[in-house]
Automatic annotation (TrEMBL):
It comes from Aspergillus fumigatiaffinis. Keywords: Membrane, Transmembrane, Transmembrane helix. This is Calcineurin-like phosphoesterase domain-containing protein. The keyword Transmembrane applies. Residues 173-381 form the Calcineurin-like phosphoesterase domain. The chain crosses the membrane at residues 88-109. The keyword Ion transport does not apply. GO terms for biological process: polyphosphate catabolic process. GO terms for cellular component: cytoplasm. Pfam families: Metallophos.
């Protein structure tokens, strides 16, 4: 009948309430006619009805329940939550790798360098000079016959002090060349690579132009042709000493080896004895004129430039350097500053660079042009370390005769430096 409630309302659950058409006290809009909302009197948080991994996963249950079922202190629960988190394990591995890397860097890189730095400073400390009985080179050394100790380069051959404007070629260039060892073909290729111009460029060889390679005589002739400068290397020294002994003993003939004491030839190989005989008198005279030390002069940004074959002892005057050591040295004793031709010791370049660096620092504020008071050494001889360009030492021996490279350092106006190399054949198999 009209006005009677709908049948569904008559059968409504006794646990439900019928919402009137009027707005409720909670502000909800009225329900449609005949519709009621069923409210559970046992309402719980919705999270209790969620069925998900978080309720059964050990990494979450450990937050509230300890493994043995007893309640753990809160700090233990926090620690366990961090340890069991996957992100913690990833970070732990990263931090462990960083720690190991830092320890390895300290043990194998930083600590040895710091120890070497302290050893170099200690070696150059004047206060220990008397403790070790004096340093090498403090007294003038005896002169050697038929050897020029020191020579100055003609100043007119030096590059200009100021660089040319952009796009303009240098007025003069110096081209320093490492150990050629008779590799004439590679030398000619290198001269093409540097665009050698006899009118404005001057060649300077850092010793060991001859021996080992296929055409030592051709290398000497090419150097003479261009009026190049040179220094005496250990291979020139050995071959020239052998040549002079042959002249003295009248054994220049190829058939004169028989009956001659082996000591006369310094134990040199047959190929070296043959080279000593093949050199003409003019070639011998030119090689004999190569000094042990060539004083190039002042070059901007390089200071006083000196060319030797082996090396120099820092703090010793050029005219007091031992010629044999200058041609052969590889290492140096830090206590006595005695050089050695072996590799048992500290590289002489490390001590020399430290010495010049300290000198440069000590001149700050007292000398207007500090660079002019330091020395830069250009050398060869050390093919094992190949090209080695440091602040005050420039090593140019790149092992050409062994299949390495032939290197040249070009110095232009204003002291601009560049390194150019060409590849070489391995002539040891020839």
């Amino acid at each position: 009948m009209p006005g009677d409630p709908p049948p569904m309302a008559a059968h409504a659950d006794r646990e439900s309430l019928e919402i009137s058409d009027d707005y409720s006290d909670d502000g909800f809009p009225p329900s449609p006619p005949g519709y009621s909302y069923r409210l559970n009197r046992y309402t719980r948080p919705l999270i209790d009805y969620v069925r998900n991994e978080w309720q059964t996963s050990a990494k979450y249950t450990s937050l509230s329940v300890s493994p043995d079922g007893s309640d753990s202190p809160r700090w233990v629960q926090m620690f366990m939550s961090m340890v069991t988190a996957p992100r913690f394990r990833r970070y732990a591995i990263i931090y462990l790798v960083l720690l190991v890397s830092c320890l390895a860097g300290w043990m194998f890189v930083l600590s040895p360098r710091l120890e070497e730095h302290e050893a170099l400073l200690h070696s150059l400390d004047p206060s220990i000079k008397d403790d070790v009985g004096g340093w090498f080179g403090t007294n003038a050394l005896p002169r050697f016959d038929n050897i020029t100790q020191l020579r100055d380069l003609d100043a007119s051959l030096l590059p200009a002090v100021k660089a040319q404007k952009d796009g303009q070629p240098s007025s003069r260039r110096l081209i320093f060349i490492g150990d050629v060892h008779g590799c004439k073909d590679e030398l000619e290729l290198l001269l093409d690579e540097v665009s050698f111009d006899h009118e404005r460029d001057h060649l300077i060889f850092a010793g060991d132009m001859i021996n080992k390679g296929p055409d030592s005589l051709g290398v000497v002739d090419l150097a003479r042709k261009y009026n190049a400068s040179c220094v005496r290397g250990n291979h020139e020294d050995r071959v020239l000493l052998l040549r002079h002994d042959m002249e003295t003993s009248n054994t220049l003939s190829p058939d004169s080896d028989g009956g001659i004491s082996p000591e006369l030839f310094f134990g040199l190989k047959k190929k070296e004895r043959a080279l000593a005989r093949q050199l003409s008198n003019e070639q011998v005279q030119w090689l004999d004129a190569c000094p042990v030390i060539l004083n190039v002069g002042q070059i901007p940004e390089m200071g006083q430039v000196v060319v030797v074959h082996g090396g120099l002892v820092p703090g010793v005057e050029l005219d007091k350097q031992d010629p044999s050591s200058v041609m052969n040295m590889l290492t140096i004793d830090l206590d006595t500053h005695v050089p050695s031709s072996t590799r048992q010791g500290t590289k002489w370049t490390k001590l020399f660079n430290k010495h010049q660096s300290l000198l440069y620092s000590s001149l700050k504020g007292s000398v207007p042009a500090r660079k002019s008071q330091v020395m830069t050494v250009i050398y060869g001889h050390d093919s094992k370390n190949s090209l080695s360009i440091k602040t005050y030492t420039k090593g140019l021996d790149s092992g050409c005769v062994k299949g390495g490279k032939l290197a040249a350092m070009v110095v232009e106006d204003g002291g601009k430096q560049s390194i150019i190399q060409v590849r070489c054949r391995d002539h040891r198999k020839e």
